[in-house]
Amino acid sequence: MSAQSGGPARRRSAVATREAIAEAARALFTADGFEAVGIRAIAARAGVDAALVIRYFGSKERLFLDVMTVDLPVATVMEGPLENLGRALVEHVLDLSSSTSGALAVTSLSALFHASDREPVRRTLRETVERAFAVPLTGRLRGDDAELRAHLVAAQIGGLLTSLHVVRDPVLTEAPRPTLISWYGPAIQHLIDGRFDPDAQVRP
């Protein structure tokens, strides 16, 4: 009985230790970025030995990717009517930081972006954007090149998101909201609708 009662206690301690490390790492990576944060600093903040950080997460990079996950809160808007989805997506990106979940996503996205010289981080960023925008759109679009158009939408929305909330391009952040929507919304909608003008092709 005593051995059985001791087992769960040890497991709870391991879970608590892992969570303490994750919370410490998340706070430090958010504040200082990937490169500036060391294993010892994470361990000190978590109140554990540095060896435990490696034991539970394997490496600093794996810990970073584990705790700086991005869950973009876009599912509801992505399920909206296709006929005005371009405008709705732009409006949603403009307002992203106004919600708690959106602000958390932007914080993690910024940390990942500034560590994107590493291939695993670039892959995580790419998969995040694809999962949020390209995957749900691919099954809904009709006409030629549906998958390509869905990924082009993801690329354009991902670029707008990064420019507004990560690098904070002052021309975009200071532009009037209606102007941004009126320019960018139709560009996204063109890809969603799949309207193709053969006379607009670039010829060699």
TrEMBL record:
Domain (HTH tetR-type): residue spans on this chain: 15-75
Native organism taxonomy: Bacteria, Bacillati, Actinomycetota, Actinomycetes, Streptosporangiales
A Pfam match: TetR_C_16
Residues in the DNA-binding region annotation: 38-57
GO molecular function, one term: DNA-binding transcription factor activity
Presence of the UniProt keyword Transcription in the record: yes
InterPro entries, A to Z: Homeodomain-like_sf, HTH-type_TetR-like_transc_reg, HTH_TetR, Tet_transcr_reg_TetR-rel_C_sf, TetR_C_16
Protein's UniProt name: AcrR family transcriptional regulator
Keyword entries, A-Z: DNA-binding, Transcription, Transcription regulation
Listed Gene3D superfamilies: Tetracycline Repressor, domain 2
Entry superkingdom: Bacteria
